[in-house]
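User: Can you fold this complex?
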Amino acid sequence: MAKNIPSRAEDYAQWYVELVKQADLAENSDVRGCMVIKPYGYAIWEKMQQGLDKMFKDTGHVNAYFPLFVPKSMFEAEEKNAEGFAKECAIVTHYRLKTDPVNKGKLIVDPEAKLEEELVVRPTSEAIIWSTYKKWIQSYRDLPILINQWANVVRWEMRTRLFLRTTEFLWQEGHTAHETKQEAEKEAHQMLNVYAEFVENFIGLPVIKGKKSEGEKFPGAVDTYCIEALMQDGKALQAGTSHFLGQNFAQAFDVQFSSKEGKLDYVWGTSWGVTTRLIGALIMAHSDDDGLILPPKLAPIHVVIVPIFRSEEELAKVSAAVEPILKQLRAAGLSVKFDNRDTHKPGFKFAEYEMKGVPVRIAIGPRDLDNGTVEVARRDTKEKSVMKTETVATAIPKLLEEIQQNIYNRALKFRSEMTTKVDSYDEFKKVLDGKGGFILAHWDGTVETEAKIKEETKATVRCIPLDAVEEDGKCVFSGKPSSRRVVFARAY
RNA sequence: CGGGGCGUAGCGCAGCCCGGUAGCGCGCCACGUUCGGGACGUGGAGGUCGUAGGUUCGAAUCCUGUCGCCCCGACCA
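Assistant: Here's the predicted assembly.
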């Protein structure tokens, strides 16, 4: 088969970008650092939205929408948050253009239309949301507030990459307000679990749940929890974060409530988010050199049916045989595409749907009509089998479940093989430069050590796993005592 | 923002050093033969060479400015 995707082994970055383009998911736009998400890519995002949204609703959350623009004074209220994002903000300074008196047909910014106060294009919405919550909250009776919003944000990153890091990106951000510290902490953990469950069950990608180090946590948070996944090149990808904000934002925006006891207290907060980066994770974790491999739960098309025919009459006969299969599979809730285009040959279609990661392909031709069979090919293993037509309706849903499970198992096996315990700095560096992956090592817990390790090796503490077992050891870098292993890796 | 590279047809590129009016592959269109793993043949359409200015009889090619993109660093979901 002619290859038009570079191999994973050759150049991982190039392989990834080609996959995105060839599978017709997205492309770079003419706007710097921005991305056009094409219909097929957006369909995957919609699937993710559906899955996540249901989980949010099931845990008591509701959706709302807050403004894109944040007045600078509002933005700077929570100092650490503002400082953390200051370097990557787009700012609106004017509200009008006018025709250029010098250059006919061109426009210039009207200097008369300068805003009195600049508007920051949200890089995240804590500021605008907490300034709104202030108006909504007076009493413990107003709590909790459990709101999520589906939105776009802008972070002026220096270097961008399709889905993984773009100037503008789509995400969901939950922002909750609570009476007590315990309740807010519970919420932060709950949402971390929601994310972990989603990524494992829908994307089929195992994750490590953990807490971020001081150096890596969200600006303005007390604690940042995260899920970390491993990509096929041995680099880690942060797949989602959930922050316990303490009373930081409540204090910054003066959000107080009267408690049952009649005392005035600051509200406790959380925020949590996942982005279209999850699509990048999905691609990098599962794809092979023939293209995407989509987990059935997120595949816009579950099954594609490709007819084999030479003439219109033959197509009519094949179509008649396809009709009941289509009906049955759709009745079973599957998304099925019958690709009866006569403008492309079957081989072309096979390759195309493989590139797009469609989990199951059914081919039906004259030979099958005679035998009462169909050919079923699964994308994950590329295995083909011939099946009696009457068994299709029950076999395909089962096959899809099996594929979903197999994709997860494969990723889990890969991660296990790529997770290494090391006890010395030499070993640490050797593994990092050799096979890569997650490294479990002791760390003295200081920001300085983490910074030095990062400087020397580019590896960071991905997280302190929540399920880490207590174990006495010595920091691989400083030799100081440590009570548990943390996860190190080079990351995206 | 520091270092390097690149903007030529829808996409990927050659031509630039040594100035003379633009070419290749893929894709696209038409017709014919094909059709169970990315078909082939023949014919055809498509580009003010990123942009602004300069040098020159003449600029894709030389010079200057400018915009954008990619790679490596720093930053980051």
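The mean pLDDT of chain A is 93. The longest strand of chain A covers residues 168-178.
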